[in-house]
Design brief:
single chain; about 350 residues; alpha/beta; 5,6-Dimethylbenzimidazole Phosphoribosyltransferase, Chain: A, domain 1; Rossmann fold; 2 domains; six-stranded parallel sheet; 14 helices; 6 strands; about 50% helix; globular
């Protein structure tokens, strides 16, 4: 991924200043459209233009399984991952409905589903059949994590080649909130209990077990805070794919809309690997998972929506996408005071 990271350039904040100056000439009191104006400035900086484009968006859902599911940390059995991949391919999941609503190109990528996926339309980029159980050994080798990152970068390349001007990255994988919580705890050196939530809906007693599993794994792995090492030791293949996707989006100056908790942990890994990538991220929504607030704080991010969602798949990011479209429309379609003959 060094070649991808080498292509990521810091945004030009002078373009942001030009964008804000232009927004202040439009027929509205300065700053009256609040955070929508800040979003418009960000999109101008990302695209290095006063006329940014975000349509059409590309939705990419990465799917993989987790060895730590053996420890009973999830409310659902591991077979659900492959079943949901088939559901994505058939168009029956929440993200399919929301992607259709915003006219997105959608792709489903298998980077590590444990079961056999024989469904038309699913991209086979399987690195291995699920990660190893990180309670007993590293989830991945660093080479496997890198391969998954490259699969994510290639998926963004495909979206860009198909004409997409923004990307929404989602994920599916039973036990991936456990892996994400472990990665976040390691990166932030933060107590696990403050980060871990119910995920897909586990009972209170199983929540305590989930926390204990992560704490034991952190002690056993001893991976420090170096992002690539943490990702390989504790992460997931779909998490690594999203890291690669976020970095590739930044390399191509594409706005990447970040979904909830798991996507934000992937975004944090990407930013730790390349701080300049942060300016290319737009945060879609605040998840109900308690760890998400800590990930957002570490990224200095304020999400666009707060709907108490915890589904994943990229669903919250897709719901936030119309706000990016509105920010572009404001820049493109609103009249200036001079053009409209309105007194300042």
């Amino acid at each position: 991924m060094h070649d991808v990271i080498a292509r990521i350039e810091p945004v030009d904040f002078r373009m942001g200043q030009r964008a804000q100056a232009y927004l202040d000439t439009l027929t509205k009191p300065p700053g009256s459209l609040g955070r929508l104006e800040a979003l418009a400035v960000s999109l101008c900086q990302i695209g290095d233009t006063l006329a940014p484009r975000v349509d059409p968006p590309g939705v990419i859902v990465f799917a993989a399984d987790h060895g730590v599911a053996e420890e009973g940390v999830s409310a659902f059995p591991q077979e659900v991952t492959a079943q949901m991949v088939a559901n994505f391919a058939r168009g029956g999941a929440a993200i399919n409905a929301f992607a259709r609503q915003v006219g997105a190109r959608m792709e489903v990528v298998d980077v590590g589903v444990a079961g056999v996926v024989r469904v038309p339309g699913v991209i086979d980029a399987k690195v291995r059949a699920g990660t190893r159980n990180f309670l007993h050994e590293d989830a991945m080798t660093e080479a496997e994590a890198l391969q998954a990152m490259r699969a994510g970068a290639l998926a963004v390349e495909r979206a860009r080649a198909a004409g997409c001007h923004s990307v929404i990255l989602g994920e599916m994988g039973i036990a991936n909130t456990t892996a994400s919580s472990a990665v976040l705890a390691a990166l932030l050196n933060h107590p696990v209990a403050a980060l871990v939530g119910a995920g897909t809906g586990i009972a209170r007693e199983r929540l305590a077990h989930k926390i204990a599993v992560i704490e034991r794994a952190l002690a056993a792995r001893g991976c420090g805070r170096e992002p690539a090492r943490v990702l390989a030791a504790l992460g997931g293949l779909e998490l690594a794919a999203m890291v690669g996707g976020f970095l590739a989006a930044a390399a191509h100056r594409l706005p990447a809309v970040v979904d909830g908790f798991i996507a934000s942990v992937a975004a944090l890994v990407a930013v730790r690997l390349c701080p300049a990538a942060r300016a290319y991220l737009v945060f879609g929504h605040r998840s109900a998972e308690p760890g998400h607030a800590h990930a957002l704080e570490a990224l200095e991010a304020i999400p666009l929506l707060a709907l108490d969602m915890r589904l994943g798949e990229g669903s919250g990011a897709a719901l936030a996408f119309p706000l990016l479209r509105a920010a572009c429309a404001m820049l493109r379609d609103m009249a200036t005071f001079d053009a409209a003959g309105v007194a300042r």
